[in-house]
Amino acid sequence: MKKVMLVEDEELILQGIRNIIDWEALGLEVVHMAHNGKEALSLWEKEPVDLVVTDVEMPVMNGLNLLREIRGRDERVRFVILTGYDEFEYARKAIPLDVEDYILKPIDEEQLEAVAKKALLKLREMDRDNAKDMEDRIGWQKFLEGGSSEEEQKTFLSLFPRVKKAELLSAAVMKIDSRSMRKGDMSELLSILQEEACRVIHLGTDTLLLIDSFQIDYTWNGGEGETAGKIRGEIHSRFSCLQNRLESELGIFTFISIGPSFTDYEKLPDAYREAMRMQKYRMLDGYGSCVDDNHIRNRESKDVAIDETQLRKMILQKDRDGAINYIEDLFINNIRKDTDVNNLYQTALKIAMLLWDIKGEYKLEEKNMQDLSDMVEGIYGAEDIFGLKAMFISEISEIITYLHTENSAYTPVVKQIMAEVQKNYREELSLKTLAYKYHMNASYLGQIFQKEVGCSFTQYLSNIKNGIAKDLILNTNRRINDIAQEVGYTDTSYFYRKFKQCYGVSPASLREMKKY
């Protein structure tokens, strides 16, 4: 919430301003109430506010002098002037001080609420603009990664407010699931973050660094370790509640990793780097999770069991279903959430090496397939475990398809049928019509095809169609419905079902993964 200070020398009017509208419902919190400018300035110096609603004529220090003092310290604060009719020309002297609006006494409830909303909107716009300007002006990434000069660091640190006594700071990296974002959602998201008093640093189109403050409660009982645990729990709870709000109000899914707390902004880069280190746990925990060091400390470090010999055998025997089911079982059933994410990456790298060995052994490197560096990049770029699984299922399907095509042991009639499929996959092909064309018994031809190719004719035709569709999805911007028609599927829902059976992921999800 944005903070508000009310200043009025008459106590009855001051209480009336406090209670005439529901400030909290507007996203505003009244933190100070003062009876003159001097008292107000003293309160502001202890705890700055975002909006000041003040009378003009007051004893000790009037409203205009109060505005000048605060404006000299902070250009962002918004002001609303309360004035009587005969004081209005006097109040107009505040125009150069960038006053938000003027309200004549007696105060009208609806007018005060409208002006408060206007000031709040202005604050949000200024914060968004400031965040963007700061991102453009300062090398945030360079500073956070420890690459800026000493002079640049001083400039950067001067932009942060002074840390108050007993104030603890926390930093978290928020990764946004782009698939859950709609046009205009980012503005709403930033507004909520501002309401929650989070300072936002843009690290990328879908990555934000959030900085929040936390007041230490010295009344907590217990030892140092117990108190630290309570603080960690409070910080984690705060970011989790923020995450839940984004999901419930906007339908936006995020993954938040929280770095260690600190009391000096010079420690922000350390907290950022630790939070970034924990971002890799998005692979296991997925969007909708919020993790800190306490949540990942006790994860198991033992290796994930993978039988490379068995997987290799299924691929070389062209057992597509067996290999895909093995990958499904490995990533979805055998890799648990409490596993250390480094073991997941080690397992994925073992599979990538196995597939690369098979490609080298059967001279498939020259084909239009991923090389080892592409697969490694795909492993570390995958959004979650499901994206990783889909990548390997797609690669295994490609290898098996090429092994079918390259096998020289095919009989002439099977080679002819495979060539027919490659050429005329868009047409209504069936084993029965092809058997008639080649003067063979359909049942017998089906048995030969299954034995030599390792799958039924229907499955082979589906694999060819889906392989071509996959290339079009990844390498063109054509609509998926049009791609389905292009490869011979008249029913788009049937195409989705067959494609997912082949690659373990829907056509739309595959295109989203390509964006990442």
UniProtKB/TrEMBL annotation:
Predominant location: cytoplasm
Parts forming coiled coils: none
HTH araC/xylS-type domain mapped to chain residues: 415-513
Domain of life: Bacteria
InterPro entries: CheY-like_superfamily, Homeodomain-like_sf, HptR, HTH_AraC, Sig_transdc_resp-reg_receiver, Tscrpt_reg_AraC-type_HTH
4-aspartylphosphate found at: D55
Response regulatory domain segment(s): 3-120
Localisation per UniProt entry: Cytoplasm
SUPFAM superfamilies attached to this UniProt entry: CheY-like, Homeodomain-like
Keywords: Cytoplasm, DNA-binding, Phosphoprotein, Transcription, Transcription regulation, Two-component regulatory system
Family annotation (CDD domains): REC_YesN-like
Function: May play the central regulatory role in sporulation. It may be an element of the effector pathway responsible for the activation of sporulation genes in response to nutritional stress. Spo0A may act in concert with spo0H (a sigma factor) to control the expression of some genes that are critical to the sporulation process.
Protein name: Stage 0 sporulation protein A homolog
